């Protein structure tokens, strides 16, 4: 039993449930300062304050507040305004400082330098690494879901081999995307903290009328997303290990049984072929032995009867052998036989009598 087997069902459910707060945190971090909805304007990376004008800068938007004259901030067509405190928020994608100045403050050109500084810090210094982390986390969750769906195919023996090939692709992809997402989330949190710390030191020195402050809420959300993402990646790794053991264990028995069946059939065919080869070898050996015996018998006859098997001595020897065979037969054996057998028997008896009368002439004419 591996470590993954010790995970209780409730813990597995909790690990899967981490995806909800993780993506919620990523969304909050990315939509900071996009609108004036409650709490959204306070989700900013850093704050720039010049005289009575305050800029809250997020990853993809800017919120402006004119505390001295709230009526000077118009309601933009591309942004949302809060009439109570004069706050207006607008996305910065595709806009330059002049466009932002017009959208946020009307025709005022006094705020263009501060807007230029804000866009430079947003786009070149504090790059949105958290966006990469969120996308990788999304892909990791999709791959993890594909692993679960593919695992269901393992119950079908005919689809087992194809499902195993898919799992060998989806599992490494899941682990790679999840842990890479964790690394990017950590890099985003640390980079924003260090970058804002550097701005707090440099900008007041270069411009005494500008103050910088970091967005503590957004930074906290980034660290929370990193921690929860790491926990989910760790839990998913353990759960995937559990699934791999099941594939190679219980579910893999079906595949093993199929292999054993195929091997058994191959072994049976090999045994039949071996038996057939043995029988063929035995038949060949017997035939060769019979042929060799016949050849040796023929050679022996040629040596014993050089004049051939039908010479005078050979014929007499054959008659003697036949006579001995018939002499060993009991009388009357051929009494009920055909005439040819009776005549043959009588002839043999006559020859035996002649041999007894003339012992010195074993071959009478």
TrEMBL record:
<dbReference type="GO" id="GO:0016020">
    <property type="term" value="C:membrane"/>
</dbReference>
<feature type="transmembrane region" description="Helical">
    <location>
        <begin position="223"/>
        <end position="241"/>
    </location>
</feature>
<protein>
    <submittedName>
        <fullName>Uncharacterized protein</fullName>
    </submittedName>
</protein>
<dbReference type="Pfam" id="PF12351">
    <property type="entry name" value="Fig1"/>
</dbReference>
<feature type="transmembrane region" description="Helical">
    <location>
        <begin position="12"/>
        <end position="37"/>
    </location>
</feature>
<keyword id="KW-0472">Membrane</keyword>
<dbReference type="InterPro" id="IPR033481">
    <property type="entry name" value="Dni1/Fig1"/>
</dbReference>
<feature type="transmembrane region" description="Helical">
    <location>
        <begin position="175"/>
        <end position="203"/>
    </location>
</feature>
<feature type="compositionally biased region" description="Low complexity">
    <location>
        <begin position="342"/>
        <end position="365"/>
    </location>
</feature>
<feature type="region of interest" description="Disordered">
    <location>
        <begin position="293"/>
        <end position="365"/>
    </location>
</feature>
<keyword id="KW-0812">Transmembrane</keyword>
<keyword id="KW-1133">Transmembrane helix</keyword>
<feature type="transmembrane region" description="Helical">
    <location>
        <begin position="125"/>
        <end position="147"/>
    </location>
</feature>
<feature type="compositionally biased region" description="Low complexity">
    <location>
        <begin position="293"/>
        <end position="318"/>
    </location>
</feature>
């Amino acid at each position: 039993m591996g470590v993954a087997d010790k995970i209780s069902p409730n813990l597995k459910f909790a690990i899967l449930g981490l995806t909800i707060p993780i993506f919620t945190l990523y969304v909050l971090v990315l939509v900071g300062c996009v609108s004036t909805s409650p709490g959204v304007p306070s989700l900013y990376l850093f704050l720039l304050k010049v005289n009575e004008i305050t800029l809250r800068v997020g990853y993809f938007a800017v919120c402006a507040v004119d505390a001295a004259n709230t009526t000077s901030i118009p309601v933009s067509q591309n942004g949302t305004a809060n009439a109570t405190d004069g706050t207006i928020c607008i996305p910065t994608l595709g806009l330059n400082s002049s466009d932002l100045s017009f959208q946020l403050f009307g025709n005022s050109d006094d705020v263009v330098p501060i807007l230029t500084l804000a866009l430079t810090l947003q786009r070149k210094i504090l790059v949105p690494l958290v966006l990469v982390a969120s996308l990788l986390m999304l892909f990791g969750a999709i791959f993890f879901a594909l692993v679960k769906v593919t695992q269901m195919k393992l119950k079908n023996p005919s689809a087992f081999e194809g499902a195993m090939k898919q799992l060998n692709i989806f599992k490494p992809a899941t682990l790679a995307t999840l842990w890479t997402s964790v690394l990017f989330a950590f890099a985003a949190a640390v980079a924003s903290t260090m970058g804002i710390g550097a701005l707090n030191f440099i900008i007041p020195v270069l411009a005494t009328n500008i103050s910088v402050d970091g967005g503590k809420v957004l930074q906290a959300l980034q660290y929370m997303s990193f921690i929860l993402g790491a926990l989910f990646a760790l839990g998913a790794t353990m759960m995937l290990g559990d699934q791999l053991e099941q594939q190679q264990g219980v579910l893999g028995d079906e595949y093993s049984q199929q292999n054993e069946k195929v091997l058994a059939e191959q072994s049976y065919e090999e045994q039949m072929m071996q038996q057939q080869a043995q029988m063929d070898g035995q038949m060949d050996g017997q035939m060769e032995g019979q042929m060799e015996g016949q050849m040796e018998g023929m050679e022996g006859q040629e040596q014993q009867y050089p004049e051939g098997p039908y010479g005078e001595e050979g014929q007499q020897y054959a008659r003697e052998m036949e006579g001995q065979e018939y002499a060993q037969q009991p009388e009357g054996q051929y009494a009920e036989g055909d005439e040819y057998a009776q005549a043959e028997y009588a002839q043999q008896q006559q020859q035996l009598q002649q041999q007894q009368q003339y012992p010195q002439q074993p071959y009478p004419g």
